[in-house]
Each structure stands twice: as structure tokens, then as C-alpha cells.
């Protein structure tokens, strides 16, 4: 065969992935919603089929390109010491000796469990790679306020959410009036990795009817939202605890005739 033709064919194979290692990209993100009670392990499967069943076989898992778990066929799996409390290394994914400990069982999840996970399977003659994404949702200790301030015919609405993960999107909805001005602000990450965010909008109101407002906090890929409501004249979606406490103390002290 003409040497020039051989070179052309070889380049074509590399460009089309003809000589590349098999790889799988699982585009569906695995969601983990943190709860206060004990949670079941989240299992990530490593899908592969090998032909070289008699030779060396190793399975490695990476998170954000950092090795977190390794299994060599015929031995017990070994999570990297740094991640030993994050992985259940006793979890058996299959009775097939070639896949017995190939899955990754995530336990004790935190927001730092979020990441890109990669499984690499190697024999002496074959290599398989698969990718998966994990997204943790933590709204266990959030706070959410919808405040309003009316100036003439304009009502300013401020929605504030704090201590949530991941980065939220805030939408303020006026059921009766048109939003005339928006002031979105980029969410800020605190020292623990959680997010605080604020959005301010203004609506134009020309009548004295009671108007309803809604603040919706959403997260990409998660179907459930956080919601706060307010109506015109309500003074906002929450009560200041310090003001409430002052009023209560004032009431009881006045009853005891301590106040003049």
C-alpha cells in the first residue's frame, strides 16, 4: 500500500476516535438532597464489559480528577484514606467477580460531595472510562424573606435567601402589577460554601386593591422550590423577632404597672 495513503488513513482514524479508548458520558446528574435523618447510600455504577477476563483488572474512581477509590479484582476495595468516611467500601454491586466492587457507594454526603465523577476500568489490553455528575442540594437551614416598601405608586420588593446550596436563582412575581425595574445581585458564597442571595424589583401600582407578591427560589435541575409570599399592606413576608419581643415585654410590664 502507498505509504502516503497509510498516513492519511491513520490520521483519519485518530480524528474520528477510531483508536481512542471506549468512553461513556452519563449526562444525567445524580441529585442528593441532604436530610437530617440517616440517608441511604448514593450508588454510582460503573458500566463496562471486558473481554480480557483472565488478566489484571482494576477499577478507579475519581472526583474532580482526584482519586478517591480503587478496587483490584481478587482483593478488597480500598478507598483513599482521606475519603474513607465518604465511601462504603463493603458495598457489593454484583455477583460477577469482574464487577463485584466496581460501584461507588457514597455515604455521609455534604455539599462537597458535589462534583464530576469518573470511573476508569483497566485490564492489560482494555481501558474503559465513564463520567457522571453529582449535585448536592442542601436547604435544611435556610432563611427566606420577602420585604416590601411602598413609595407613592411604586412598591419595592426585596427577596433575601441565605444558607442554601447550590447557587440559587431568585424570581419575584407580582400577580397583579407589572414589574418595572429589576436589580438582580450575584449570589455570595460564605466561608462554609453556602450561598446568600438578594433580588430587588419594583412594581407600579395605581389602585388601592390588595396586591399579592411571591418570591420563588429555584435550583438548576431540582424540581422543588422555596417560596415566600407577601401582600400589599402586610409589611413583608416575615416578622422581626426583636420587635415582637419588645412589644410582648412592653405589654406585660405595663400590666405590672412598672412603666409610668
From TrEMBL:
It comes from the Eukaryota. Keywords: Signal. PROSITE patterns: IG_LIKE (PS50835). Residues 22-129 form the Ig-like domain. Residues 1-20 form the signal peptide. This is Ig-like domain-containing protein. The lineage of its organism: Eukaryota, Metazoa, Ecdysozoa, Arthropoda, Hexapoda. The gene is LOC4803513.
Amino acid at each position: 500500500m502507498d505509504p502516503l495513503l497509510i498516513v492519511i488513513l491513520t490520521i483519519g482514524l485518530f480524528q474520528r476516535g477510531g483508536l481512542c479508548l471506549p468512553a461513556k458520558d452519563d449526562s444525567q446528574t445524580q441529585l442528593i438532597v441532604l436530610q437530617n435523618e440517616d440517608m441511604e447510600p448514593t450508588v454510582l455504577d460503573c458500566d463496562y464489559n471486558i473481554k480480557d477476563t483472565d488478566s489484571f483488572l482494576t477499577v478507579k474512581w475519581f472526583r474532580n480528577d482526584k482519586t478517591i477509590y480503587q478496587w483490584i479484582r481478587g482483593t478488597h476495595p480500598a478507598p483513599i484514606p482521606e475519603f474513607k468516611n465518604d465511601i462504603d467500601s463493603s458495598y457489593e454491586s454484583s455477583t460477577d467477580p469482574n464487577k463485584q466492587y466496581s460501584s461507588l457507594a457514597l455515604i455521609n454526603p455534604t455539599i462537597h460531595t458535589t462534583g464530576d465523577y469518573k470511573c476508569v476500568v483497566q485490564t492489560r489490553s482494555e481501558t474503559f472510562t465513564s463520567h457522571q455528575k453529582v449535585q448536592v442540594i442542601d436547604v435544611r437551614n435556610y432563611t427566606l424573606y420577602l420585604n416590601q416598601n411602598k413609595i407613592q405608586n411604586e412598591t419595592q420588593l426585596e427577596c433575601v435567601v441565605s444558607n442554601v446550596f447550590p447557587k440559587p436563582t431568585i424570581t419575584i412575581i407580582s400577580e397583579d402589577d407589572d414589574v418595572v425595574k429589576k436589580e438582580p445581585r450575584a449570589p455570595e458564597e460564605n466561608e462554609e460554601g453556602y450561598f446568600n442571595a438578594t433580588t430587588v424589583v419594583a412594581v407600579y401600582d395605581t389602585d388601592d386593591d390588595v396586591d399579592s407578591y411571591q418570591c420563588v427560589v429555584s435550583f438548576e435541575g431540582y424540581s422543588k422550590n422555596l417560596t415566600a409570599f407577601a401582600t400589599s399592606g402586610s409589611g413583608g413576608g416575615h416578622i422581626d423577632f426583636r420587635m415582637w419581643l419588645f412589644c410582648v415585654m412592653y405589654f406585660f410590664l405595663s400590666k405590672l404597672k412598672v412603666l409610668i
